[in-house]
């Protein structure tokens, strides 16, 4: 499974936000974590769109978690950051990602689908609280 820097930055940002006692702005986060602000802002917007973060406006605004860290799954963070569910292989049970378009006749497809299900279940059961 290829996770990009977007997932890494999302997890680092969520860890920092979870420790804060007040909302944290994108610029402060970018500086603290040495992440390009424009890239981080897109990630934070995606996390907010998925209901993981809340954006508060105003002089004392910034981002806060919408839920307890034990209620935010790693899978939901990955999906928000990457824009799609994680896939272990290019050819998974998702027929649109099969490079040969042969998901129904591929002999290893059942194994890959089972493996992907186990990964999904693991990531759905893993929370930010488990890794922070």
CATH domain fold name: Arc Repressor Mutant, subunit A
Count of individual domains: 1
Kindly estimate the percentage of residues that lie in beta strands according to DSSP.
Answer: 5-15%
Could you tell me how far the N terminus lies from the C terminus, measured between alpha carbons in angstroms? 21 Å
Order of helices and strands: HHHEEHHH
Main sheet: strands, sense, barrel: 2 strands, antiparallel
What's the CATH class label? Mainly Alpha
Overall mean confidence score, pLDDT: 90
Outline the low-pLDDT stretches.
Answer: none
Helix tally? 6
Q: Trace the largest sheet across and list its strands.
A: 1-2
Return the structural class. Answer: mainly alpha
Query: How many DSSP-defined strands?
Result: 2
CATH architecture identity: Orthogonal Bundle
Helix share, percent: 40-55%
Using the alpha-carbon principal axes, give the shape.
elongated
Description:
- This protein has a two-stranded antiparallel sheet.
- The chain contains six helices and two strands; from the N terminus they run H-H-H-E-E-H-H-H.
- It is elongated and about 60 Å long.
- It has a single domain, classed as Arc Repressor Mutant, subunit A.
- The longest helix is centred in the C-terminal third of the chain and has 17 residues.
- With 132 residues, it is mainly α.
- One of its GO terms (molecular function) is DNA-binding transcription factor activity.
- InterPro entries: TR_Rrf2-type_CS (IPR030489), Tscrpt_reg_Rrf2 (IPR000944), WH-like_DNA-bd_sf (IPR036388), WH_DNA-bd_sf (IPR036390).
């Amino acid at each position: 499974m290829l996770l990009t820097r977007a997932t890494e930055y999302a997890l680092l940002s969520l860890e920092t936000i979870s420790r804060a006692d007040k909302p944290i702005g994108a610029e402060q986060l970018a500086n603290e974590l040495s992440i390009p602000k424009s890239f981080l802002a897109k990630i934070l917007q995606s996390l907010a769109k998925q209901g993981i973060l809340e954006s508060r406006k105003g002089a004392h605004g910034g981002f806060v978690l919408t839920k307890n860290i034990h209620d935010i799954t790693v899978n939901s963070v990955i999906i928000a950051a990457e824009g799609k569910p994680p896939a272990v292989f290019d050819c998974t049970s998702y027929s649109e990602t099969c490079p040969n378009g042969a998901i129904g006749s591929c002999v290893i497809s059942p194994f890959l689908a089972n493996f992907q299900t186990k990964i999904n279940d693991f990531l759905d059961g893993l929370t930010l609280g488990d890794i922070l």
